[in-house]
Design a protein that fits this description.
alpha+beta; BirA Bifunctional Protein, domain 2; 7-stranded mixed beta sheet; two-stranded antiparallel ribbon; 9 strands; binds zinc ion
Length: 354
């Protein structure tokens, strides 16, 4: 017949086994061993019936206390193991919920970012502001006078064919239109400057423009331009060429240069197209630049005296230059986007790259 010492030994044995259980599964096995129907303690309880009443009472109390201790140890160990295992799981999945709290970097990133065209516009503005230009804006809906007439493109002028546009159905036919370039803003600026006696002007004018173009890899019916205008005393073509070159290097990088080639625009005289080093081949010649090493970016020239006359600027005292080019096209060249239409398709996989 076993005595109280055996009970204590059983509890000690159980304590060791419970502490040694390294996982919830192992603990389940240990539980069966130390408190199940076949455990030593259960065995001892079954033997109680053979004892005298007084001895049975005492031994019964011992066993009950022992079982309570073992149950307590099991519960404690189970809780500790659950905690350890959950912690390991969390560490393994690397899921940090605090990342999704408001104000955290992850939450900010989920809000998205500016469209590539807006980013490009901002960067271009920064470059020109750094060169001393102010930024001006004007309306997207214009009258025929601001979009064509004042810019030396009278009705029926063949140059209007270059700027076929959308007219608004307001009263007189073909008098109100969606601007085909940002050049009307030049007219607004000069008119205001003449009225306020606020010449000279050094301004860039970014904005949205419209043309009846069929969309293709290089044209969109709605696009963005940035226009530049300088009106001051003693401005020459050299100032224009220098401005274009400084801008090109500042925006595209020091190994990209600009060159001017004779062209025709009604509102500038002389006029030039400006081309920059092909950003794909860096000037060595490739398919995109037709092996020339140069890509056309925009137009420029000295402000035509007829334009000065239209807005009342004295062409004897003031000279100036203007330039304009596509913002979308700048983005296309800098990021080597094969097809401009990707800018307006709103495919998040495309937009996320910038
Ligand atoms: Zn090239």
């Amino acid at each position: 017949m076993s005595g109280p010492t055996d009970v204590a030994a059983c509890v000690e044995e159980a304590r060791r086994a419970i502490a040694a259980a390294g996982s919830t599964e192992e603990l389940r096995r240990v539980t069966a061993e130390v408190s199940g129907k076949r455990s030593p303690l259960a065995e001892m309880s079954r033997e109680l019936g053979a004892l005298e009443p007084e001895a049975r009472r005492q031994r019964g109390q011992h066993l009950q206390a022992a079982r309570a201790v073992v149950e307590g140890l099991l519960e404690e160990r189970a809780a500790a193991l659950r905690f350890e295992e959950r912690s390991r799981e969390l560490a393994a999945s690397r899921l940090d919920l605090t990342e999704f709290l408001p104000g955290s970097p992850a939450a900010r990133a989920a809000r998205g970012h500016l469209h590539l065209v807006s980013q490009t516009r901002d960067e271009l503005e920064d470059v020109f502001v750094g060169m001393g230009f102010e930024v001006a804006e004007g309306p997207e809906i214009e009258t025929d006078w601001y979009n064509f007439g004042a810019l030396n493109i009278p009705p029926a002028h063949p140059a209007r064919g270059m700027w076929d546009t959308f007219y608004l159905d307001l009263g007189e036919p073909e008098t109100t239109l969606l601007r085909t370039h940002t050049s009307p803003v030049q007219i607004h600026l000069m008119e205001r400057a003449v009225l306020d006696g606020a010449l000279p002007i050094h301004a860039v004018m970014p904005g949205r423009c419209y043309r009846r173009d069929t969309p293709d890899a290089r044209h969109l019916p709605v696009f963005h331009q940035v226009e530049g205008l300088v009106v001051d005393r003693g401005i020459t073509f050299a100032d224009l060429a220098g401005t274009i070159e400084v801008f090109t290097a500042a925006y595209f990088g020091p190994d990209i240069h600009a060159r001017l080639r004779p062209a025709y625009f009604p509102f500038t005289e002389p006029s030039a197209e400006f081309e920059i080093t092909c950003t794909l081949c860096r000037g060595t010649g490739c398919r995109t630049c037709s092996q020339t090493g140069w890509i056309e970016l925009g137009g420029c020239g000295m402000v035509d005296p007829a334009v000065f006359a239209a807005v009342g600027v004295d062409a004897e005292s003031w000279t100036g230059f203007a330039f304009g080019f596509g913002i979308d096209r700048c983005a296309q060249m800098r990021h080597q986007i094969a097809d401009l239409r990707a800018l307006v398709e709103n495919d998040i996989r495309f937009l996320r790259q910038f």
